[in-house]
Amino acid sequence: MILAANVAQLIESRRHAIERDAAQAALAQSEARFRRLAEQASDIIFRYRLQPNPQLDFVNPAVTSILGYELDELFNQFPGVPSFLDPSQIGQVERLIEQGRGQLLLHTRRRDGNYVWLDLRFVVANDAVEGIARDVTDQVLAAARLVRYELLSAHTRDIVLFIRAGDGRILEANAAAERAYGYSRAELCTRTIFDLRAPETHPYILDQMRQADTGGVLFETLHVRRDGSVFPVEVSSTGADIDGERVLLSVIRDISERKQAQAELDLLRRALTASDQTIVITDSDGVIEWVNPAFTALTGYRAEEAIGQHTRILKSGKQDRAFYATMWAEILNGRTWRGTLINRRKDGSLYHEELAITPVKQENGVIAHFIAVKQDISVRVQREQQQRALMQLSAAMRVAQSCAELIQTVVHELQALVAAQSVVFWRFKDEGWQIEQLAGEAIRFDWVADRLATVGSDTIQRAPTPPTVLPGGELVIVPLTCSVCPE
User: Fold this and answer.
1) pTM (whole model) above 0.90
2) Helix/strand/coil (H, E, C) string of the chain?
3) Spelled out in words, what is the top-level CATH class assigned to the domain 142-258?
């Protein structure tokens, strides 16, 4: 009986040994399979012993590509858990270990000093932390960018639309889009870009979408509000892949105010261009920036010749430095200056002009431009000179004692005061009016011409009615040729 009992005990012991060996072999096989899987995994898999002496028991090769550490380096000279962690998260990790398990987004320091984001999940078993960590840096940064973009799009004044590249359906819209179109975000997301475009622009939409998807596009078009009103917009659109879908990111700006300002500017430009008064716009230093056609007609300088030149190209030298100093002091103090100038044309001839120079200020009050509006008053000045000359002639003729003295006085006064081109002196004789003398240079005297009906080549065919007779009863003055009045 004793022998039988011993045999049975031996058999049972042997069976347990076989089972233990089988279990250990299975465990070894399982660990081998786990190690092979772990070594191929793209996530970090690790086991960190807490007791009795903290140390790293296992980590797979993924740690090298994610954190930059070689395996031998970690096992032989493990730097310690705190060296991996953002200091602000150490306390949170310790609390989770005490709880026996945890999951958190860990801001982890790489060997090169840069940080990555790891999605860490672990349990505490047999005084060891066993876990897996996945690199989610790209997702975290993308989410952060998305948050920033959402904040930006929510607060920008421009319309922001996400449009599906395939069919033009609106996927997302910001608050500015709701205000601009009069639709709620939900309503906009049930529509396509065709619903927001003016009908006359529909033929261009597909081509513009293709351009946006392939390389980005910037263009102007017309959009339609919920109430049917149309407004001009500028669209900047480009393609991007979002959540596996091709999307057109479109930033749309209402340019109604810009168009209105441009229309007003065009109207002003047309008005200035059509003006018969000379208009010159300069910078604050007097350098010409724009002139109208009347400037060319007056000065002989074409616009392309004048622009970029200082206004001193017209300077004649007839005004002294004190004159210009006074003028500049006035306009640089922000006041309009009015006066007359004698300037010089491109061909060297002089002309009189009456002008007003007005400063144009920026919003900060700094003078940026000057606008000069000019009018040619050469004819008026000439007529005033003629009137003065006539008065002097009249006074001289009244004191003349003889015809010879009269002629000599008239010639002197004409040459000295009028600079006429050709003057004819006519004397009334028995055979009629005949040329007495040609003298000097003069300009037409209307008070004589109005009284002479006709002038022949060398005699007056019919005496003027009434004839204009100088003192002495026999002398008349008329122009032979005239540069101002060709007749």
Assistant:
1) no
2) CHHHHHHHHHHHHHHHHHHHHHHHHHHHHHHHHHHHHHHHCCCEEEEEECCCCCEEEEECCHHHHHHCCCHHHHHHCCCCHHHHECHHHHHHHHHHHHHCEEEEEEEEECCCCCEEEEEEEEEEECCEEEEEEEECHHHHHHHHHHHHHHHHHHHCCCEEEEEECCCCEEEEECHHHHHHHCCCHHHHCCCEHHHHECHHHHHHHHHHHHHHHHHCEEEEEEEECCCCCEEEEEEEEEEEEECCEEEEEEEEEECHHHHHHHHHHHHHHHHHHHCCCEEEEEECCCEEEEECHHHHHHHCCCHHHHCCCEHHHHECCCCCHHHHHHHHHHHHCCCCEEEEEEEECCCCCEEEEEEEEEEEECCCCCEEEEEEEEEECHHHHHHHHHHHHHHHHHHHHHHCCCHHHHHHHHHHHHHHHHCECCEEEEEEECCEEEEEEEECCECCCHHHHCCCCCCCCCECCCCCCCCCCCCCCCEEEEECCCCCCCC
3) alpha beta
Kindly list the domain boundaries of the chain, sorted by start residue: 1-36, 41-135, 142-258, 275-376, 384-479
Q: Which CATH architecture has domain 41-135?
A: 2-Layer Sandwich (3.30)
pLDDT of 196 reads 97
The model's confidence at residue 293, banded by pLDDT at 50, 70 and 90, is very high
CATH code at 275-376? 3.30.450.20
pLDDT tens, 446-459?
A: 334 343 333 333 33
Question: For residue 411, what pLDDT is reported?
Answer: 63
Tokens of 73: 């380096």
172-214 residue pLDDT tens: 899 899 999 999 999 999 999 999 999 999 999 999 999 999 9
| Integer Cα distance of 322 and 328 in angstroms | 10
